[in-house]
């Protein structure tokens, strides 16, 4: 019996190892799928805006910025997240820089979401002065500020807000994992409370005011025009889109940050590895959903996308495409309200 105990322990350890390997393999497969969908969807966003001059207004500066951030999530963040999950051997500051890069790019996506919310708020709140205040030049300046702030906040750990290297020797290779280089107080207090919770609260306030303005305008339009039903449908579609934006943002980002809070405030609590993986790819899947939420609900975007598919995928000629779908004039539907 005494001799069988070590053998039994080895069998149990082997079973646990195989189980963890299956979880890792599943995580990598899901992340790869999200990366592919995110890159393809957001490349289409950029391509559609490039090919349709009617979409080249200040609003779409923010949408293109969001698409570029989400492309970076698919091309850089997800592969680097997979590298961290495998725990490859790297130098301490190399691992720290990789971890900071993850935060930087995902932060730019969050700030782009906030910029779009502000842009939509201004479009509804001051429709007559919107084109004067929100010029394309100012929009690109705002995009630049979003990316600059993302880099500054994401690289804060490189300035010293990180865990100490093993034995205080930074040139010693370590098993590169996010939790071995990044301090949880930075992730909870700075990254979550300041750069996730605050933007979320601001967006809730902006969307609440948007709904208030829309309801007020709907009541006035209903009294002033006989075409109120059509107007109600249009504004209702917009309202549903805004709710969906806010819901998806919270749904995709909060689980991972809540788990970070659990680890920080309750060090003895055990967060299952599969739960951490679910939280990570939920935050990444937001990048794959953004093209659907922000872009493909616009009619002109649908038309241009169909044109691209017919021309470059189905190899139809321009005359054949024009015969099937004659382009209509630019209307309010081509704008993001």
From TrEMBL:
SUPFAM superfamilies reported for this sequence: Family A G protein-coupled receptor-like (SSF81321)
A cellular component annotation (GO) from this entry: dendrite
One Gene Ontology term of the molecular function aspect: G protein-coupled adenosine receptor activity
UniProt domain G-protein coupled receptors family 1 profile: residue ranges: 41-294
Subcellular location: Cell membrane
Keyword annotations from UniProtKB, A to Z: Cell membrane, Disulfide bond, G-protein coupled receptor, Glycoprotein, Lipoprotein, Membrane, Palmitate, Receptor, Transducer, Transmembrane, Transmembrane helix
Transmembrane feature ranges: 25-50, 62-85, 91-118, 139-163, 188-211, 242-265
Pfam families: 7tm_1
Major localization class: membrane
Highest taxon, organism lineage: Eukaryota
Function: Receptor for adenosine. The activity of this receptor is mediated by G proteins which inhibit adenylyl cyclase.
Family recorded in the similarity comment: Belongs to the G-protein coupled receptor 1 family.
Protein name, entry field: Adenosine receptor A1
Provenance organism: Cyprinus carpio (Common carp)
Origin organism lineage: Eukaryota, Metazoa, Chordata, Craniata, Vertebrata
Gene name per UniProt: LOC109106703
């Amino acid at each position: 019996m005494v001799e069988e105990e070590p053998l039994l322990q080895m069998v149990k350890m082997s079973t646990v190892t195989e189980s963890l390997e299956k979880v890792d393999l599943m995580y990598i497969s899901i992340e790869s799928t999200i990366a592919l969908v995110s890159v393809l969807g957001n490349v289409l966003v950029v391509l559609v805006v490039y090919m349709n001059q009617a979409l080249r207004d200040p609003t779409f500066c923010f949408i293109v910025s969001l698409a570029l951030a989400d492309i970076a999530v698919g091309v850089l963040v997800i592969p680097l997240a997979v590298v961290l999950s495998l725990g490859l051997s790297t130098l301490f500051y190399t691992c720290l820089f990789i971890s900071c890069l993850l935060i930087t790019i995902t932060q730019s996506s969050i700030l782009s979401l906030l910029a779009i919310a502000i842009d939509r708020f201004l479009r509804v709140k001051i429709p007559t002065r919107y084109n004067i205040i929100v010029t394309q030049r100012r929009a690109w300046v705002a995009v630049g500020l979003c990316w600059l702030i993302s880099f500054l906040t994401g690289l804060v750990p490189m300035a010293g807000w990180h865990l100490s290297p093993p034995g205080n020797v930074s040139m010693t290779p370590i098993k590169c994992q996010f939790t071995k280089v990044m301090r949880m107080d930075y992730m909870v207090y700075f990254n979550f409370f300041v750069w996730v919770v605050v933007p979320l609260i601001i967006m809730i306030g902006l969307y609440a005011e948007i709904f208030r303005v829309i309801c007020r305008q709907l009541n006035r339009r209903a009294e002033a025009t006989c075409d109120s039903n059509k107007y109600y449908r249009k504004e209702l579609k917009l309202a549903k889109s805004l709710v969906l934006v806010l819901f998806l943002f919270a749904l995709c980002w909060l689980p991972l940050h809540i788990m970070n809070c659990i680890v920080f405030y309750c060090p003895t609590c055990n967060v299952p590895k599969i739960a951490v993986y679910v939280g990570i790819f939920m935050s990444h899947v937001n990048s794959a959903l953004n093209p659907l939420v922000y872009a493909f609900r616009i009619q002109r975007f649908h038309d241009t996308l169909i044109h691209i598919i017919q021309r470059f995928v189905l190899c139809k000629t321009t005359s054949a495409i024009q015969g099937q779908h004659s382009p209509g004039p630019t209307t309010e539907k081509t704008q993001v309200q």
